[in-house]
Every structure is written in C-alpha cells, then in structure tokens.
Structure to design on (250 residues):
C-alpha cells in the first residue's frame, strides 16, 4: 500500500524548478562543446507537457508584443511572435538561470578575443545595462513553421549590447509532428570554406549556440569566426520553437 502511494506521489511530483534543471546539467562538457563547435545540446530541458503548454500560447495574442511574417522581410518563410513583459514564469526562470551559467563562458570568449566587455553575473544586471542603452523590448519568442517554410541563415542582433550566446528549445517532436526543419549553424573562418553543423533535436531539447562570433585557437592565438543559424525547409507538419535571447531590443 505504501509502495503504491509513493508511486502515485512520484508520478504527480512537479517538474524541477528552472534553477534546478539548469544546475543539473554537465556544464564543463557543455562549455567544451561550445568552445569546440559553437553549439551544445541540453537534452530534455522541458517536459512534453511544458512543450505543449508553450506551443499553445502562440494563439493567445495577449502574451506577445509583435507578430512577424518572415516572407515580408526576406527572412525566409514562417512566422514568429515576440513575448511581452512580464514573461511566462518558466520562461523567465530559464532565461535567468541559463544566463548565469553562460555569462562566464561569454566572458572567457571576450577575454580570448581581447574584447573589453564583461557581462554581469546576474541577468537582471545585464538587462539594466540594456535598458540604460535604450534596449527595453523583450526578445524571447515563439516560432512556427509549416510545410515549405524555412528560416534563412541570420544573426539575432538587436542593438549595441548583444549577448553572444542564445538558446532555442524544440517544442514539437520530429517524425511525429513534422519532418525536415533541421536546425543549422554555419561557421565561416578566415580564408577557409564555411563549415555547417546540423543539430539533431528531440521535443524538449535545447540547443545553446553562438549568436554572432566565437574564438577559435590558431597558430598565433585566438581569432574570431562568424556564425549564422537557421532552419532548413520543413517537409511536412508543423514545427514550433521557443527562442531565448538574453539581450533586450531597441
């Protein structure tokens, strides 16, 4: 009887907090992957139910400040909506917890590249810098693609202050909800051919990746390589993604 009761309680236990689930990740391994490839996967950052809950918000306009149709701006095909403040609690918690783990990586990259900017340890302090620079609009977003849609290779830079890493969480399940639609990252090194990285994701997985550039070690020290990211053509179904950008926009 006690065993059954304990099992029922275990099944009903809520998911860990944003802080707990982020803290539980292998950050030394994640740091190494980011240093080597410019991206790293955090598996099962969201539960399937949380993915469905976020995806369902797309139809509720009260959560968003703007709606963008990519084709109108030459961004590709598909659409996305920027959240308004206040953000949903879990999204706000993940943005804060992930920033705290990524800020030391960003600072180490800037040090290697001899860039003076150092990011504060806490996300609230970084947002304060953004707002003092006139960047006050929230940047987390929900993206939606249907068959034939794609996202051109791009960089998400919204002002003078741009955090060099961001996160995308896949809310849909490949093979069940959609086919195609792979996350793609390209890296262009000086005097070399571009390198492409296709990142396989499952529902609830997050990919952390470089927004603009990152350091790569060369014979004369670290040098800067530029990166762009996008989504390949969706073959069928619908693909939804939660994007977490850490700097605010003008």
């Amino acid at each position: 009887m006690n065993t059954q009761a304990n099992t029922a309680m275990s099944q009903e236990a809520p998911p860990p907090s944003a802080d707990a689930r982020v803290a539980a990740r292998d950050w030394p391994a994640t740091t190494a992957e980011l240093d080597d490839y410019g991206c790293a996967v955090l598996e099962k950052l969201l539960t399937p139910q949380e993915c469905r809950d976020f995806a369902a918000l797309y139809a509720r306009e009260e959560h968003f400040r703007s709606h963008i149709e990519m084709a109108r701006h030459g961004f590709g095909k598909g659409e996305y909506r920027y959240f308004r403040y206040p953000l949903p609690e879990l999204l706000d918690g993940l943005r804060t917890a992930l920033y705290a783990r990524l800020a030391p990586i960003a600072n180490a990259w800037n040090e290697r590249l001899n860039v003076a900017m150092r990011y504060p340890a806490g996300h609230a302090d970084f947002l304060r810098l953004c707002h003092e620079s006139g960047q006050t609009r929230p940047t987390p977003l929900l993206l939606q693609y249907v068959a034939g849609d794609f996202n051109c290779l791009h960089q998400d830079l919204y002002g003078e202050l741009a955090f060099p890493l961001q996160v995308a969480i896949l809310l849909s399940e490949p093979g069940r909800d959609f086919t195609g639609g792979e996350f793609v990252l390209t890296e262009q090194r000086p005097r070399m051919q571009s390198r492409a990285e296709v990142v396989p994701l499952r529902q609830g997985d997050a990919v952390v990746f470089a927004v603009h550039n990152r350091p790569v070690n060369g014979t004369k020290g670290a040098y800067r390589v530029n990166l762009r990211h996008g989504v390949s053509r969706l073959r069928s179904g619908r693909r939804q993604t939660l994007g977490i950008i850490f700097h605010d926009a003008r």
Summary: The chain has seven helices and 14 strands. The mean pLDDT is 93. The chain has one domain: 29-244.
